[in-house]
Amino acid sequence: MNAVDTNILIYVNDPRDPVKQGIASSLVLSLTDGVLLWQVACEYLAASRKLEPLGYNRAQAWQYIRDLQQVWYTALPTWMILDRAENLLNRFSLSYWDATIVAACLEANVQTLYTEDFGYSNIDGLAIVNPFQLP
User: Fold this and answer.
1) Angle 3-28-127 (CA atoms, 0-180°, nearest 5)?
2) Strand order of the sheet with strand 122-123?
3) 60-67: Cβ within 8 A, 24+ apart
C-alpha cells in the first residue's frame, strides 16, 4: 500500500506549478492501493484554504477528500500511533506531525509514503519518496 503526504494532495489542486501539479495528479491517479491517512485528510482541508484566491473553494476541497475516501482505504488514528510517534521522535529528527504521519503509515502497513518534506528515504522499512526529485 501507498500513502501521500498533504503537500502532494495540495499540488494536485494548485495550478501555480504545472509541472508539480502534473506529477502529483499522475501519482494520485495511479495509486489504486492508496491509503488516506486521517491526519493528511485534516491537514489538506485546512491547507486547501490557501487555494481559495485561485478559485478552489471549500466545497471542492471537501468533495476531493470524499472522492479519495471512495477509492482509498482510510487509516483512522489510534493510540498506538501516538506511542509509535513518540518512539520515532526519540530516534529521528522529525517534527511531531511528520512523526505521526510515519507512525500512521507503519500502523497501516504502508510500504511507500510520497512527500517532498522529509529528509529520510527510509524509516523502519517505510520507503519515503519525493516524486518531484529526479532519480
Assistant:
1) 35
2) 73-75, 34-37, 2-4, 112-114, 126-129, 122-123
3) 60/13, 61/13, 64/9, 64/12, 64/13, 65/36, 65/41
Q: What residue type is 21 in one-letter code?
A: Q
Per-10-residue mean pLDDT for the chain, 135 residues long?
98 97 98 96 97 97 97 96 97 95 98 93 97 86
Q: What residue spans of the chain are helical by DSSP H?
A: 6-12, 18-30, 38-47, 58-71, 79-91, 96-107
Helix (H) or strand (E) holding 1: none
DSSP 135: -
pTM exceeds 0.90, yes or no: yes
